[in-house]
Amino acid sequence: MNAIFYKEWIKTRWYFLLAVLTTLGFAGYCMLRINRVIELKGAEHIWEVMLQRDAIFIDLLQYVPLLVGILMAIVQFVPEMQRKSLKLTLHLPYPELKMVMTMLFSGLVLLVLCFASNFLLMGIYMSGVFAPELISHVLLTGLTWYLAGIAGYLLVAWICLEPAWKRRVLNLVITVLLLRVFFLSPTPEAYVKFLPWLAVYTLLTASFSWLSILRFKAGKQD
Q1: What is the pLDDT of residues 38-68, one digit of tens each?
Q2: How far apart are CA 80 and CA 57, in angstroms?
Q3: Contact 56, 136 (CB under 8 A)
Q4: Which helix (H) or strand (E) holds 79?
Q5: How many domains is the chain partitioned into structurally?
Q6: pLDDT for position 42
Q7: What's in the keyword line of the UniProt record (predicted)?
Q8: Cα dist. 192→143, 149, 181, 216 in Å?
Q9: Choosing a second label site near 17 at 20 to 30 A (CA), which of 51, 74, 107, 196?
Q10: Structural domain span for residue 78
Q11: How high does pLDDT run on average in the chain?
């Protein structure tokens, strides 16, 4: 298992660093926007805007985690399929299901670390500006987008691991429809009561990759 983690780390380490810097850059820019409004009009104004207009000031982040998750899956699994090294990996003396889940888990760990750094940055900054209720309002709204990033990673990994191009197209259509669920409502905290179920829904998408692995092992190309 340690060898698998190390192999996945070698493949994704530079992308992981880029993803952390990029997402922190976007999150930091959102915090700078808040800071600029405070400097120009005062903290009272920004509180008023948030309470009366339901503004959260991190709208720029909406699709960033999704893009980061999708690219993580591409970086991690496309070379594996192009070089046809997945077949060799699956012939190692290790249970195939554990092998695939370990590969996915390694990517998930990196994504969670990346996304957690964003929440840490935003939480630290906003704790000196907003009341706890407003901080919770902003971060819970953003949490849905970050869950979309994790779901995007798992679903695109499923597409990449699928051996047949026709099935990949079908998987892509299903992926788009499933990811649409995360962006049905633009209202802040629209998903807050649904978040536990949304998290389960996200994690269940990890099982899709196993279906593609079974087809890959069976040599199905259509």
Answers
A1: 888 877 778 788 877 778 889 999 999 999 9
A2: 39
A3: no
A4: helix 64-82
A5: 1
A6: 77
A7: Membrane, Transmembrane, Transmembrane helix
A8: 9, 17, 14, 38
A9: 196
A10: 1-218
A11: 87
